[in-house]
Automatic annotation (TrEMBL):
<dbReference type="Pfam" id="PF03976">
    <property type="entry name" value="PPK2"/>
</dbReference>
<comment type="subunit">
    <text>Homotetramer.</text>
</comment>
<dbReference type="InterPro" id="IPR027417">
    <property type="entry name" value="P-loop_NTPase"/>
</dbReference>
<dbReference type="InterPro" id="IPR022486">
    <property type="entry name" value="PPK2_PA0141"/>
</dbReference>
<dbReference type="GO" id="GO:0008976">
    <property type="term" value="F:polyphosphate kinase activity"/>
</dbReference>
<comment type="similarity">
    <text>Belongs to the polyphosphate kinase 2 (PPK2) family. Class I subfamily.</text>
</comment>
<comment type="function">
    <text>Uses inorganic polyphosphate (polyP) as a donor to convert GDP to GTP or ADP to ATP.</text>
</comment>
<protein>
    <recommendedName>
        <fullName>ADP/GDP-polyphosphate phosphotransferase</fullName>
        <ecNumber>2.7.4.-</ecNumber>
    </recommendedName>
</protein>
<keyword id="KW-0808">Transferase</keyword>
<dbReference type="InterPro" id="IPR022488">
    <property type="entry name" value="PPK2-related"/>
</dbReference>
<keyword id="KW-0418">Kinase</keyword>
<feature type="domain" description="Polyphosphate kinase-2-related">
    <location>
        <begin position="35"/>
        <end position="254"/>
    </location>
</feature>
<dbReference type="InterPro" id="IPR016898">
    <property type="entry name" value="Polyphosphate_phosphotransfera"/>
</dbReference>
Length: 281
């Protein structure tokens, strides 16, 4: 163990590692955590550069975060956005539709939230609620679901034709890891608010979720709007690699001077295809 005297004299990381070696203390977890923080800081600096370039070019960028509950969508969005300029960035997490919105065209409430020129919008769940969550939980009729599945490729093609850039992430998590995260939330007083009875239903209805998820992919994965699978059993890796993927999609100013690789790990980030190995099957 480190003593207070040891810690009082440590000013650099190398000193910590040196003392740990002398005392035969295993600090591998600490080292992994420090490497993660270093990588995250470098990638977040690149996101700042990307945002400035998007604003200058007047691009419209929407990034959709979809996946089962506890897959790490919110945590990833937090890391994407925590150092960005809030004037040209928004996080959209819509609550259930109002009675008035229920009588409108389904896409209308999302159209109002699409990015303006020079803006990046992060959707913490999106119009794809109707593709998986709503039919699984009985929140929409079969007719509403079928209508949505027919309309969504056309809707996204219009966005593509109009110059909007839409990135669709599916955060993939195993059933065992989801259960572990649910249990952790219940034990943490600061995270209890994240847990709801609907979440636990997701465990009981796992196979039904899988069925609707696969139908969603088969009907909405297109050349102009593909699904990008992020394997998220390792939260920190998923955060880093999803940021890398977004950065890799743009040829922004200063990209060549990045202090870390901007190419995502193909073992973590995969473009969907029918025979891809997923962990949330």
């Amino acid at each position: 163990m480190f003593t207070l005297e040891d810690l009082a004299h440590i000013k650099k990381r190398k000193q910590l590692i040196h003392i740990a070696d002398q005392k035969n203390i295993d600090i591998s977890k600490i080292q992994r955590s420090l490497r993660y923080e270093d990588e995250l800081r470098a990638l977040q600096a690149e996101l700042v550069n990307l945002q400035q370039w998007v604003a200058k070019k007047k691009l419209r960028v929407a990034i959709l975060f979809e996946g089962r509950d506890a897959a790490g969508k919110g945590g990833s969005i937090k890391r994407f956005t925590e150092h960005l300029n809030p004037r040209s960035m928004r996080i959209v997490a819509l609550s259930k539709p109002t009675e008035e919105e229920q009588g409108q065209w389904y896409f209308r409430r999302y159209i109002k939230e699409l990015p303006n020129p020079g803006e990046i919008v992060f959707f913490d769940r999106s119009w794809y609620n109707r593709a998986v969550v709503e039919p699984v939980m009985g929140f929409c009729t079969k007719r509403q679901y079928n209508k949505f599945m027919v309309q969504v490729p056309g809707f996204e093609h219009m966005l593509y034709e109009d110059g909007a850039i839409v990135i669709k992430f599916w955060f993939s998590i195993s059933k065992e890891e989801q259960k572990k995260r649910f249990d952790s939330r219940m034990q943490n007083p600061l995270k209890k608010w994240k847990f709801s009875p609907v979440d636990m239903k997701g465990q009981h209805l796992w196979n039904k979720y899988t069925k609707y998820k696969e139908q969603m992919f088969s009907k909405t994965h297109t050349t102009f709007s593909p699904w990008i699978i992020v394997k998220t059993n390792d939260k920190k890796t998923a955060r880093l690699e999803s940021i890398r993927y977004v950065l890799s999609m743009f040829d922004y100013i200063g990209k060549s001077k990045a202090k870390t690789t901007l190419l995502p790990d193909p073992n973590v980030i995969v473009r969907y295809h029918r025979h891809i190995e997923q962990i949330d099957i």
